């Protein structure tokens, strides 16, 4: 049995107060292991993005806890959460969010620049290695604006992987891509998951994408209504 | 230093915006330096013309015409006062005379002292236009206006009549120009023994003890101290005698400060608005950097460094521009030269940088508060 990476316990998230209060998440509880390849599905407004924000250490629950490798991160002060976020989590969004002021290499290396743990040489080596993993060799010195949509999203994925995070959270990562690029990105996720052991949690409303993951978590009206092991791909853990 | 690197890239990504605001700061700081230096130099010139070649603190007898006795006590007080400019104490005896060339006549006030002491106050040796600064017992130094009026040249003999009716003849050793027509026309320098013998005063009796100070504007304080320490004499100082000039100088300074303040306020508003716009333009980038783990402090510092870069480059350009303005001004025919004081340039440039830093407070606070979720969810 793999080690436990994330444990969400009785997560509640309420926005606003009094009559205007919105209950975005209600008592969500689940475990997530190292190296898992899973998806969260749900309609718009179901609370899946709220869950992603909590798991991504971007937000804190109104009640309940999130632990990473046994450490409760829900009550940590903001700077500590920012630091842990940089080290543990990589994000891939629907929009690539590359920094147009920087080159492809700098965009990919940025998470390591922020955490400041590696030497310049190590950063360089790792950024090139990651770009190679995503088939982006030769684009290092290009500006982010000079790339195609698919290339941009792959650079964003390389950036998410730069700090070798324990978990990559991908929020509708293929929502903006055509079928060819969607398949390419999905295959890359699979490849990276297999080669590096990085866990993936993909938020999607596309059941087709979800079906290709090992585990599907379904959120409806803020509740985790289904936690299903999927027979597709490697056997569910 | 990541914040600095990002700040630099953000500035470079909007070159027109950056160059315009740097130009704005440069013009503001150069105006500040130019106006400030102009006023300082003008005032320095006015003060120098008024008191540069005149006593700043004078000790005289309570009754006009009586001598001041320069005793050990007085010597100790004056000569040991370190506010007095070294070598700028002159013991003066003055006597009135009348000059006549047969057709025309004019009063001439004779100032008797040694060349060394006169140099301390009037800088006589350097003000000689013709002849030499020499005061042997029968020699006299006259002003250019007096010499011109009576057609006198170096080597000419002039005959003066004193109050007791006795005449005496002097040889013109040199002709000086102290920069003031009234002085050049009515005053002349003679050997200190000339008035002494005419007045019948002993060797330590003088009309006035004149001095110049290291800091002319300390004259009121120095005079007050000397009044306390020296009994039976009157101590007068230049500021009390030139109240109108001082009021004019103060008014000029006030208006100059006002102009400089408004310039700085305009610069501050310019930088603040540019940074605020930049902060809005870069919201998405800041949000994503925060999502990647950048701390609030580090993201706020991006705008602090932007302000520092804009303020630093702008202020430096302002100094260069001010130097150019002042060089151009040297071709304008005025009676004084505008001099940039290094401390004032440094102060102005520092103010430019500080104003820029202060202007970054709003974007820094906004950036620190920015929640990356807002950016991520709003696309």
Outline the structure in words.
The complex is a heterodimer of chains A (237) and B (379). With 237 residues, chain A is α/β, with parallel strands linked by helices. Chain A has seven helices and ten strands. Chain A has helices at residues 48-55, 78-88, 104-115, 120-133, 149-161, 179-196, 207-211; strands spanning 4-15, 22-33, 37-41, 63-68, 71-72, 89-92, 167-171, 199-204, 215-220, 223-229. Chain A has a six-stranded mixed β-sheet, sandwiched between helices. Chain A has a four-stranded antiparallel β-sheet with strand order 2-1-4-5, covered by helices on one side. In chain A, helix 3 (104-115) packs parallel to helix 5. Chain B has helices at residues 2-13, 15-52, 72-79, 115-122, 124-127, 144-150, 181-186, 193-199, 219-229, 238-241, 243-281, 283-291, 296-329, 342-359, 361-369, 372-378, and strands at 57-61, 68-69, 84-100, 105-112, 128-131, 139-143, 157-162, 167-176, 187-190, 205-206, 208-213, 233-237. Chain B has 16 helices and twelve strands. The longest helix of chain B is centred in the C-terminal third of the chain and has 39 residues, at 243-281. With 379 residues, chain B is of the alpha+beta class. Helix content of chain B is 58%, strand content 20%. At the A-B interface, helix 2 and helix 3 of A face helix 1, helix 12, helix 13 and helix 16 of B.
């Amino acid at each position: 049995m793999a080690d436990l990476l994330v444990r969400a316990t009785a997560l509640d998230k309420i926005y606003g107060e009094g009559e205007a209060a919105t209950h975005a998440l209600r008592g969500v509880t689940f475990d997530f292991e190292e190296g898992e390849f899973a998806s969260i599905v749900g309609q718009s407004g179901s609370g899946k993005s709220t869950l992603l924000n909590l798991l991504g250490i971007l937000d804190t629950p109104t009640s309940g806890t999130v632990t990473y490798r046994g450490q409760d991160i829900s009550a940590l002060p903001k700077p500590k959460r920012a630091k842990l976020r940089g080290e543990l989590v990589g994000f891939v969004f629907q929009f690539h969010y590359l920094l147009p002021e920087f080159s492809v290499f700098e965009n990919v290396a940025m998470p390591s620049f922020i955490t400041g743990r590696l030497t310049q040489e190590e950063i360089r080596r790792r950024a090139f290695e990651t770009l190679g993993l995503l088939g982006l060799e030769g684009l290092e010195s290009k500006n982010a604006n000079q790339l195609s949509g698919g290339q941009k999203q792959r650079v964003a994925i390389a950036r998410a992987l730069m700090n070798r995070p324990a978990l990559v959270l991908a929020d509708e990562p293929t929502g903006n891509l055509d079928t060819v690029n969607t398949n390419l990105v999905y295959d890359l996720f699979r490849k990276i998951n297999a080669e590096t052991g990085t866990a993936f949690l993909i938020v999607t409303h596309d059941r087709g994408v979800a079906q290709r993951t090992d585990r599907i978590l379904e959120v409806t009206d803020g509740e985790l209504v289904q936690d299903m092991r999927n027979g597709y791909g490697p056997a569910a853990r | 230093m990541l914040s600095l690197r990002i700040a630099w890239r953000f500035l470079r990504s909007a070159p027109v915006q950056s160059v315009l605001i740097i130009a704005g700061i440069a013009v503001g700081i150069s105006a500040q330096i130019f106006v400030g230096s102009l006023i300082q130099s003008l005032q320095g010139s006015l003060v120098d013309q008024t008191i540069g070649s005149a006593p700043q603190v004078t000790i005289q007898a309570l009754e006009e015409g009586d001598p001041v006795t320069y005793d050990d006590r007085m010597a100790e007080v004056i000569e040991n006062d370190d506010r007095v400019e070294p070598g700028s104490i002159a013991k003066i005896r003055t006597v009135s005379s009348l000059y006549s060339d047969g057709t025309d006549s004019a009063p001439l006030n004779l100032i008797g002292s040694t060349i060394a002491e006169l140099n301390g106050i009037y800088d006589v040796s350097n003000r000689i236009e013709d002849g030499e600064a020499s005061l042997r017992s029968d020699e006299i130094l006259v002003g250019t206006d007096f010499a011109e009026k009576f057609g006198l040249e170096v080597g000419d003999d002039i005959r003066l009549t004193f109050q007791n009716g006795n005449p005496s003849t002097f040889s013109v050793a040199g002709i000086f120009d102290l920069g003031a027509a009234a002085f050049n026309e009515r005053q002349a320098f003679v050997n200190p023994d000339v008035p002494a013998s005419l007045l019948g005063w002993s060797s330590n009796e003088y009309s006035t003890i004149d001095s110049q100070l290291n800091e002319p504007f300390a004259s009121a304080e120095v005079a007050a101290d000397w009044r306390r320490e020296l009994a039976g004499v009157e101590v007068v100082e230049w500021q009390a005698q030139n109240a109108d000039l001082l009021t004019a100088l103060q008014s000029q300074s006030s208006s100059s400060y006002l102009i400089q303040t408004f310039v700085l306020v305009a610069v501050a508003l310019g930088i603040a608005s540019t940074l605020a716009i930049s902060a809005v333009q870069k919201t998405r980038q800041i949000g994503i950097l925060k999502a990647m783990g950048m701390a609030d402090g580090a993201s706020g510092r991006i705008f602090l460094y932007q302000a520092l870069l804009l303020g630093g480059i702008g202020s430096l350009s302002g100094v260069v521009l001010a130097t150019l303005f002042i060089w151009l001004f040297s071709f304008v025919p005025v009676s004084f030269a505008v001099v940039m004081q290094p401390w004032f340039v440094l102060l102005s440039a520092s103010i430019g940088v500080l104003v820029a830093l202060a202007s970054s407070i709003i974007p820094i606070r906004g950036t620190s508060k920015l929640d990356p979720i807002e950016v991520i969810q709003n696309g």
